[in-house]
Amino acid sequence: MVNDVGLAQDLVQEALTKTYVAWPRLRDKANAEAYTRKAITTTAISWFRRKAWSHEKATGEPPERATRDHADGVARSSALWTALQGLPVRQRVAIVLRYYEDLTEAQIAEAMGCAVGTVKSQVSAGISKLRERLGDDPDLLPLNDMVVTR
């Protein structure tokens, strides 16, 4: 909608703040998501109108970006997902629940019907296999709290 990651993050933060403030006035709490979407849209429109009136001028050259573009992120996610698909099912499930769903080891053990130690060993073995396939590049394997002891 706004074509800028930083601005999009600010927009979502602003919309969530507006939703929080309006929460007591919402008649149907089930429609909170729709209210938030509307807040995002109206906030974006008001920001663009304000920008038009502020007489901001575009520069001749765009500023250098410290972050990579969306295409790089998609390529990295795709490479990681492909590598995940090559793991055995229990390792893949343990890793997805841990790092994508952000569950604790105890919650994963309950979901998988196994011991916490089994979850730890499945995650460790899966991470080792991912590192063999992807290397230690933090851009390809951005799971920064992974610690694998060999």
Give a short synopsis of this structure.
This protein is an all-alpha fold. It folds into two domains: 5-53; 70-134, Winged helix-like DNA-binding domain superfamily/Winged helix DNA-binding domain (Arc Repressor Mutant, subunit A). It has six helices and no strands.
Q: Explain this structure to me?
A:
- With 150 residues, this protein is an all-alpha fold.
- The chain folds into two domains: 49 residues; 65 residues, Orthogonal Bundle (Arc Repressor Mutant, subunit A), CATH 1.10.10.10.
- It contains six helices and no strands.
- It is flat and about 55 Å long.
Characteristics:
6 helices; Arc Repressor Mutant, subunit A; 150 residues
Radius of gyration: 21 Å
CATH class of the largest domain: Mainly Alpha
Q: How many runs of DSSP E, i.e. beta strands?
A: 0
CATH architecture of the largest domain: Orthogonal Bundle
The CATH topology of the largest domain is Arc Repressor Mutant, subunit A
Mean pLDDT, to the nearest integer, reads 79
The proportion of residues in beta strands is under 5%
Which stretches are low in confidence, meaning pLDDT under 50 for 5 or more residues running? 144-150
CATH superfamily of the largest domain: Winged helix-like DNA-binding domain superfamily/Winged helix DNA-binding domain
- Intertermini distance: 46 Å
User: Main β-sheet: number of strands, strand sense, barrel status?
Assistant: none
The helix-strand sequence is HHHHHH
User: What's the helical proportion of residues?
Assistant: 55-70%
What is the count of structural domains?
2
Total helices: the number is 6
Structure class = mainly alpha
Question: What general outline do the C-alpha atoms trace?
Answer: flat
